[in-house]
Amino acid sequence: MKVSVVGASGRVGRAAAFCLAEENLVNKLVLISREKSLNQIKGEALDMADALAAKDIKVSIISSCNLEDIKDSDIVVISAGIPRTADMNRVDVAVPNARIIAHYSNLIATNAPESIILVITNPVDIMTYVAYKASGFPRNRVVGLGNHLDSLRLKNLVAKHFNVHVREVHTRIIGEHGDHMVPLLSSSSIGGILMKYYDEYKTFDLESIIEKVKGAGTYVIGKKGATEYGPAFAISNIIKSILRDEKKIPTLTTFLDGEIEGVKDVCLGVPVKLGKNGVEQIISLKMSNEEIKKFLEAAKFVKNATDEVMASIDVNK
Ligand code: NAP
To answer: Residue 13 pLDDT more than 80?
Structure first.
């Protein structure tokens, strides 16, 4: 199994690469950066190799600036992008990042035409659309991470409020990885029982919890400069599910063609069945009227922003 990370000199890229290597699942890992960071990723590769030797894990790690080295990758992660500072929202960085994503997606299509692209760069819903259009890949092979991480954050907060093990909580956030995220509370459960049947539900303040989830990335960026472990483990989860053909149902950004509430021609976070072919199925949803309303608002917001970005870039470059 071979996985490449484009943007491996960045905090998310290198943490995700290491996290994945530690899973002992891939035998080749390619770290890609620009020329100016080649020395850094060479150092990262050696440091990782030392740590892996301590755990008896054998992975061949290559550091490179040449996208030809991603040849035959099963999965290519793109986390290259201009960083978001605490005073910027995810959309502020959309046009410059869209150019980076289009550039790399074209190179991925040339050098690893059978791979699955996993987009991390923000704003991830728009970037997934750009990668889908620029690569020309079928939509099942272009997927973005966003709401999976939001859902993990929500899961943590729910587990804390209900005082249960995080494993017992089944909840998710769909829509935009941003202000227009939609918590799917109507179908959330704890230990297989709908959340609304618990006594603690009476004091569950969804609005303040969702504000915490929305602000989680910004909070961490404000404190330590970037989010790292959360995205890295979420990325590694997704890659594991694909490589092991697990058929798990995470919430990932995918291109919609009317499957959910008729929403079309936009990439949004929805529950998907994930396996060796990438997104193998978009899971249809039963939502409350309020959830439908919020989902449609998210779709409208992301579609408008995506159209603006697409009008400002050339996806073939
Ligand atoms: P970072 O530490 O600043 O790393 C940025 C990476 O992008 C570096 O590898 C850098 O390479 C590369 N890069 C910057 N400008 C570039 C350009 N013009 N052309 C090519 N490569 C360029 O940022 P990070 O914290 O790793 O975050 C990376 C991205 O992931 C950001 O967009 C962030 O918002 C996003 N993110 C998404 C999620 C999610 O859930 N979807 C979670 C966390 C972060 P050089 O070393 O060559 O400069």
So the answer is: yes
Question: Helix 94-111 crosses helix 124-135 at what angle (to 10 degrees)?
Answer: 40
| pTM, rounded to two decimals | 0.96
Q: How is residue 22 annotated by DSSP?
A: T
Over 90: is that where the pLDDT of 99 sits? yes
Q: Catalytic amino acids? A: 177
Distance in Å, CA 157 to ligand 1 centroid: 27
Q: Which atom of ligand 1 is nearest to the CA of 227?
A: 43
Give the mutation target among 11, 30, 65, 79 for probing the ligand 1 site: most ligand atoms within 8 A of CB.
79
Tell me: the pLDDT tens digits for 109-149? 999 999 999 999 999 999 999 999 999 999 999 999 989 99
CA angle (125 as vertex; 124, 130 as ends), nearest 5: 90
Q: Is the separation of the CB atoms in 296 and 260 below 8 Å?
A: no
Distance 229 CA to ligand 1 centre (A): 14
